[in-house]
Amino acid sequence: MRPPSSLTIWIILVMGWLSALGRTHLMADDLRIGIIGLDTSHSEQFALRLNDPANPNHIPGARVVVAFPGGSPDIEESKSRLDGFTAALRDKFGVRIVASVAEACKDVDAILLLSLDGRPRLEQMKQIIAAGKPVFMDKPVAASLKDAVTIYQLAATAKVPVFSASAVRWYPGVLEVANAEPTPARSALSYGPAHVLPHHPDLFFYGIHPAEALFTVMGSGCLSVTRTTTASASIVTGLWSGSRTGTLHAIHEGAKGYKLTRFGDSKITEQKSEGDYTPMLSEIIKFFQTKQPPVSAKQTLEIYAFMEAAEESKRKDGTRISLREVMVRAGAPEAWLPEDSKAKPAPPKSVPKNLPRPGGT
Description:
By secondary structure, the protein is of the alpha/beta class. It has helices at 6-28, 41-51, 76-79, 82-93, 101-104, 121-131, 145-158, 172-178, 208-218, 278-290, 297-315, 323-329, and strands at 31-36, 62-68, 96-97, 110-113, 135-137, 162-164, 187-193, 222-229, 233-240, 244-251, 259-263, 268-270, 321-322. It is globular. Mean pLDDT is 89; it is low at 7-26 and 350-355.
């Protein structure tokens, strides 16, 4: 084999230099992300996907550069994990740690609001909105529906792009169930863990995940809910427009797991797989780039109204609670309100004959 000529070597070197220059240019174009709240595993998982190009789930186009730890000393899940996640972001991913929300909003293009506790979210969001930064709000948006509505109103007035969602919305198994038929689901059942914490409506923490899976399948249009609660679980049944129903089985104690079942026109579809944070984080980065939220304020607030109405139904021994009424009390504008649950529902269709026998086809 003949050795490469000097011209060939020169071309290879130039191509390598241009390739390196291109990589540097792309990195310079990366969005600079600030994180507020390092008391959740999402902070480390998001930084892993954004800051480590060698990670198989790496998402290009953004990098976490600064973070404010925050934390809530009266929540054990926050207090016990704060130092570890702060050290991980600083030492593993080169993130600069700062002492305030305001500092985390300086010299960045967008914010990931990941604070575990919903109670400080309103004050944190006021500072983020004042800085004019687009923001993704991790669950829970706030510790009450009223605060959540206020946050979205402030953002809308200031024209600051915001959105919030659970990662389960983009799980491949959930999307497969949601898209199983072209027609709306007649009903759906979603179950998952819902750990009870004393500082929030008891579905706002982990209950948001199976609740959002339910709404991913059923879509908007929930009118009212009823709830039955024991120490082990809560069964929340929502009535949707078009006489459709969706049921959330929130597991408080005992065996834990996630599952979604869709009842359609021609088939029943069960969730066969879960997922991870990668698809959601891809949507977040796309949102930061385009300023177009993939989930609207009205869609998100309907889910929180569902959970808050469920809390009220529990207090009132299972009374049916209107989502519109809890949204009105929370100060939501007309454009975000669900339909009136007192509207007369459509009559049920006749029962078809020749039903399949158990075990038959």
